[in-house]
Amino acid sequence: MGKVAIITTNRAGWKSIRRRWEENLPRRENFEWVFFHLEDFARPVDRLTSKLGHLKTLSNAAAGRQAVKAAVGMGCTKIVLATIHYALVLPRISGLRYYVYGDATPRQLNELDYAGKGERMNPWLGRLFSRNLSRLASEGHHFLCCSSWYGNGIIEEFGAKRDQISILPPDVDTDYWSPIGRLYESGKAGLRIIFVGADFKRKGGDLLLEVAALPAFAQCEWHFVTKSPQETNQSNLFFYAGFNSDDAGLRDLVRSCDLFALPTRADCSSIATIEASACGLPVVSTRMAGIPEIVVDGHTGTLVSAPPTVESVACAIKRYLDNPSLRVQHGKNGRLKAVREYGIDAGITRLIEILQA
User: Fold this and answer.
1) What digits encode the pLDDT tens for the residues 128-146?
2) Structure confidence by residue, pLDDT tens digits, 78-102
3) Which of 97, 98, 82, 103 is nearest to 22 (CA)?
4) 246 and 130, same structural domain?
5) 115 and 70 together in one domain
6) How far apart, in whole angstroms, are the C-alpha atoms of residue 143 and residue 97?
7) For residue 29, with 0-12 CB atoms within 10 Å meaning exposed, 13-18 middle and 19 or more buried, which class applies?
8) Looking at the structure, do residues 150 and 290 belong to the same domain, yes or no?
9) Vertex 63 angle, CA 59 and 68, to 5°
10) Distance CA 239, CA 198 (A)
């Protein structure tokens, strides 16, 4: 049994993955597990780079390098590092094996316009990033990919071979995120529709507000979970800003709804979408990046073309409003897919298999 370092960040959706790994990996005796938090290594330089735009990349790189050194000092020979943005200047040590986990390459993020402002990585940083990640690939290290879309990007952008890529989707606790009986009732006049997205505009919350104002959806309730609640006079709109990931209140709110809507303008994959599917909700989202691997169009939900429009999103939601049996069937299909492909046991087992291979 070897010693494996799990080096993770608490940013964005990665906090949920970190928590589940730290709770469940120690129960598996295949390896001795050691956990490190990248934030602990980023603090010394964060104050210098937090307001300097692209130099934040250098802060991430320094944190990744220092965390790896600490892991090696404790005798770890396998390093699981999440995410790729901390892998810029990793030390090369004989016998050390990297497993770099991520959801998008810098080029993929640029193509998605992830920042929403046409921003791009500084060209010289981009070249440095590409050179070092290509070096990792040429040395035979491994890449853990949230989606096949991302895995293909690693191959095309950094020259990795197919056998250096393992698809490891985000996992969720499908016992915790589970349906309640009323979700499979179909004799209602309206729908309870839920949106979960901290970045309201990037995730398409503003589009949903326009859809909600249409007469066809006057009998629907709209629930928005976001960090930036909007002012509204509509009595059927509700905003929530105090939830953290995996909060029981958030789980119960999702379970009480009938449809999950996330007409995102830029996303790599979506843990919130997996959680909603696990709760038995059909999903309306955007056909982009790794989302079609989570939401099977016409089977577990409906995908609209990118960029999403008010018309396309309204049409997709109206389909479920007019056809309750379709909503029920897609919700059940989504639940089965979530349990089979995204459950914690499946994810943990897959990770261990990759480390043992």
Assistant:
1) 888 889 999 999 999 999 9
2) 999 999 889 988 999 999 999 999 9
3) 82
4) no
5) yes
6) 11
7) exposed
8) no
9) 150
10) 12
